[in-house]
Fold this sequence. Notes:
It contains 9 helices and 5 strands, in the order E-H-E-H-H-H-E-H-E-H-H-H-E-H. The chain is α/β, with parallel strands linked by helices. The protein has helices at residues 14-25, 32-42, 45-54, 62-75, 92-103, 119-133, 140-154, 156-163, 176-188, and strands at residues 4-8, 28-31, 83-86, 111-116, 167-171. The protein is globular, with a radius of gyration of 16 Å. The protein has a single domain (4-184), classed as Rossmann fold.
Amino acid sequence: MKNIVIFGAPGSGKGTQSDLLIKKYGLYHISTGDVLREQIALGSELGKIAESYISHGKLIPDDLMIEILDDVLSKHPESGIGVIFDGFPRTIKQAEALDELLAKRNSQLNVVLGLEVEEEELVARLLNRGKTSGRSDDNLETIHKRLDVYKSQTTPLKEHYMEQGKYVAIHGMGAVEDIFACIQEVVDAL
Ligand code: AMP
């Protein structure tokens, strides 16, 4: 069983590399952004709350986000084969909660794959995605807010996981398949 966090700024390629990981290793994929966007599309109460944060580039409050993830794991026993966590954790509190959520399922986090991409490239990728994604947060103003939120609230996780010896830096620029080759090396060695 392999539990993997795919970590990085918005636009760093987490979704793209997750798709390749799913194909290669058959792990269960949880993108918290996708979970929230599904709720928005359904027009649920949760979706309305989520949209009010997402459209402003802000993070959903930790307690709510942790409850949502707990619920997804419980409703999907197939996640017991190992999970690719994409977009979670985004704060230290979420990282601590993830350890607890996995421990209560007799499991643990194996590795954090940190996709490292220069800021200019992130903005260019997100603007490009915005042409077709239909996402309310892929516009220049919200992109900058999301990158600020990433820097202030999410980057401390890198050090947190380095201290635990779980962080592996992946050079996230260049061809998708070259980046995946680096990821594969790490995952195969787990
Ligand atoms: P993503 O698809 O991962 O880029 O997430 C899109 C948006 O969903 C983020 O900008 C946040 O508003 C929200 N979101 C996704 N995952 C989380 C999380 N783990 N904690 C808080 N907010 C989140």
